Amino acid sequence: MEKIQYVIGHRNPDTDSIAAAIAYAALKQKLGMPNVIPAMAGEPNPQSRFVLDRLAIHEPVYLADVHPKVCDTLNRQPVTVAMHSSAYEALELFHQSGVRVLPVISGEGKPCGVLSLLRLSEKYLLPGRDQQREIITTPTALARSLSGRFVAGGDDDTPTTFNLFIGAMLEESFSDRISGYDPRQLLIMTGNRRSILLAAIERGVRMLVVTGDHPLGNDLLALAEEKGVSVLLTPHDTATAAWLARLSTPVSLFAECKFASIGIGEPLTHLRQKLLGSSESAILALEEDGTLAGVATKSTLLASLPFSLILVDHNELGQAVPGAETVEILEVIDHHKLGNNHTISPITFITSPVGSTCTLVAGRYRECGIEPDRKIAALLLAGILSDTVILRSPTTTDEDRKIVCWLEMLADMDAALWGKEMFAASASLRNFATAEKVVEADFKLFKHEKYSIGVGQVEVFGFDEFYDMKEQLLSALAGIKRRDGLFIAGLMVTDISSETTLFLVEGHTRIGHVMEYPQLEPHLYELKNVMSRKKQVIPHLMKILAKA
Prior knowledge:
The chain has 20 helices and 24 strands. The chain is an alpha/beta fold. The strands form five sheets. A six-stranded parallel beta sheet has the order 3-2-1-16-17-18. Strands 7-9-10-11-12-8 form a six-stranded mixed beta sheet, with helices on both faces. A six-stranded mixed beta sheet has the order 19-20-21-22-24-23.
């Protein structure tokens, strides 16, 4: 099966991030890669949800994290043995499959023990002196192993300890040999030797196995019934039957009842700790209902993951879906500053200082000579208009404008009207359930040497709603600052109509002395003609941090 490639934007995705993921996955699929799937690392914000609903486009797959889990590398076709199976059947499975550990499975599909090839070998290759005759089995398992049939007595699933004797001597010697044993624990195996058969039956042994499928006379059968002797006929010769009898023990009787297990949804790191931090050679991986999913060994840790990532609208792992650092990254398409980590192999990295990642994705369509369909064109247009605030942000470039003209034609839409419709439908703080949701909807983390900062942004028409929620928003910023250990936590509230941003900030007390923007009140600054976090606010904050 071909590995899945998830095209995914940053945490707290905005319209540009979600639109870029969907559109780039669609391009890949048009290029013959059906395994490329759009994804998102957070819930769509109100504007993104409006755009998707308006265009009747399904939202991407939500990935809360991509930390490798046990199920991602597990072989889910384990070789197992039923609890009533014999040691001989287990040996056959070991030989055919090449595995070294067999889970013993109950009738409900749940593991009730484990059987290792080492333990099975030690049991039958290194028996103690008192175990050379001893066979622990059930009559039913014995009959199945010997391909036999009962002609007296019958099947019984009760585990019994037998002492095995081969009747290959004179009757007098044979009687002397078995005289010291409890007859109800004796299993006598012989061929067509009437004297031995009669002596065994008269003594009332528990089990009589007649090899070569030789029938007993009616008188012997009647006597066996009278004495309570079970008689089993087997087609095998005596040597083969004796060997098979020793291997007739049900695996449930000597499997290890205690075993290590792990849920398939647990992180792969937990499996690594269990395998490398103990003497366990295998761990049973369980489904949520307790049934067996597979057997995890050290080779499971080396298996390649069934998915990889294509990052859009970001390149820093601090902004990526949790766990991205543990997954192969195939491509990056972004329009932000570089802050990515090293990769272990060369990758496609597309970056340019344009106003939107969707501009770069649309450019890839043109390079491939493919026109996006009407819905995808409108979606790309929405991403560009959102990130450039309808082409009014200082991040807007001529390339953005050229791509917008091309997409307008393909989508049969007026970009200005589409942009106003988008912002009118979403530029309200009432679209968010709580103040925390407002702050975190488009909140990004940045790092400057020893300082970490976080800045969110939300667009509005007028500041009335903001002033009504200001105290709650400030409290939310304080909570996020404490939770993430930030030096500064801020929220840009950008009024599209006046092209002015009010910057609410919870940070170090010295920030107010160096902000270089008018302070309207404690924690609040007015940034006229400022609309871009990427090009205006973050560079300014980095300059402040350099002086801190």
